[in-house]
Structures are given as structure tokens and as C-alpha cells.
Design brief:
Layout (H helix, E strand, L loop, with lengths): L1 E8 L2 E9 L10 H20 L5 E3 L5 E5 L10 H21 L3 E7 L1
Parallel strand pairs: 1-5
Antiparallel strand pairs: 1-2, 2-4, 3-4
Length: 110
């Protein structure tokens, strides 16, 4: 199962993580994994496009991709950055609605 996790601080997104494998189909044919991966990399690329700081990105393990913004500055609160997170979150909700046996979505406030 793929676990997708978004963290928010005072309602504002600052962290994303995708971990695991869907095991919906064989490697290279797994449409659930492909859909989650496409959204995950779209989030990373979107944040890199509009975030002026240096996000912490981890893709060191197979099946894991995470991104964390620095909450010590105020740039992570930018409306455009928050829209990227929200849009990807909505996309992940759609995947979970159809393929909930293979993907879980966790939205946490810290």
C-alpha cells in the first residue's frame, strides 16, 4: 500500500511524503503507482518553481519521496505554494476514492 502524508501547521501545508508500493499490478503496469508518482513529482516540481528557498527533498529510498519546506521563514505561507499543495492533495483524494485499497491519504495538523 502507498501511504501519502501531508502535514500542516496552523492550516498551512509544509510537508509531503509518499511511501510504499501500491501492488495493484506488476511493476511497470501499475496504474495506481503511476498516478501517485505523477502527482508526487508534480508537487515537487511545482514547489521548486515557486518556492524561493531550498526545500528538503528526499528520494534516497525506492518507493519514498518527501518534501519539506523551511517554516522558519514566511515564504512557505505563500498563496501559490499553498495552492500547489492543495491541488495535489485534491488529486490524491480522487485516487483514494477509486483505489482506496491500495493508497491511504493522511492529512495531519501539527
Amino acid at each position: 500500500m502507498i501511504s501519502v502524508r501531508f502535514l500542516r501547521d496552523r492550516g498551512h501545508y509544509y510537508y509531503f511524503e509518499s511511501r510504499g508500493h501500491a501492488d495493484y499490478a506488476d511493476k511497470g503496469e501499475d496504474i495506481v503507482c503511476a498516478a501517485v508518482s505523477a502527482l508526487a513529482f508534480t508537487l515537487v516540481n511545482g514547489i521548486l518553481e515557486c518556492y524561493p528557498g531550498e526545500p528538503i527533498i528526499d528520494h534516497s529510498e525506492e518507493g519514498v519521496l518527501s518534501l519539506e519546506l523551511n517554516r522558519e521563514d514566511s515564504e512557505w505561507l505563500d498563496t501559490e505554494i499553498q495552492r500547489v499543495f492543495k491541488t495535489i492533495n485534491i488529486g490524491m483524494q480522487g485516487i483514494v476514492e477509486t483505489y482506496g485499497d491500495f493508497v491511504e491519504l493522511l492529512n495531519e495538523e501539527v
